[in-house]
Design goal:
Helix content: 25-40%
Radius of gyration: 16 Å
CATH topology: Aminopeptidase
Order of helices and strands: EEHHHEEEHEHEEH
CATH superfamily: Gcn5-related N-acetyltransferase (GNAT)
Strand order of the largest sheet: 1-2-3-4-5
CATH class: Alpha Beta
CATH architecture: 3-Layer(aba) Sandwich
Strand content: 25-35%
Number of helices: 6
Number of domains: 1
Structural class: alpha+beta
Length: 184
Amino acid sequence: MLKQLPILESERFLMRARRTSDLQAAWEMADDITTHTFMGDGRRRQNFQEYRDWFLKGMEHDGWPEVGGFWMIEDKATAAVVGWCGVFPMPVATPDRSSIEIGYCLHPAVRGRGVAREAAARVLRHGFEDLGFDPICGVTDPANWRSQRVLQAIGLRREGQTLYEGYWVPFFQLSKADFEATRG
């Protein structure tokens, strides 16, 4: 059973728990060449059957993420799933850096329309205000300037690089105090 996640709302989107009906849209995001380019080493990870098994296993168990949440982004106007966004444990953390990461992935049809910024801003607020995380970080592929702009637009600041899943990547971070100061 999937843990109970609150529904988060922004101007144009609902962020909600995964459903089995989200499988096709989630696969379209996972199988997109741009997703492969900027997530991991650029290689296609799975075929549809393997992805389906992974997706459904995540639906059945109160597993990942144990801390934080993973929300599907649903367009309020069309009810279409247009991406996912979450706050979750970072695979590798150091004492001076956050262990909670914000991440997102969008359906190819909606990239460049402010979806990631709007959803990530809402999930970031939930992470600080409701889940009590402090700080929250983000990492991107070095060439993914769009994702870096999203992180900066929601307030994270670049603080050098970090080793992430075997690659050196830009590291961004925001403290709760700095988050609250920008909202004042």
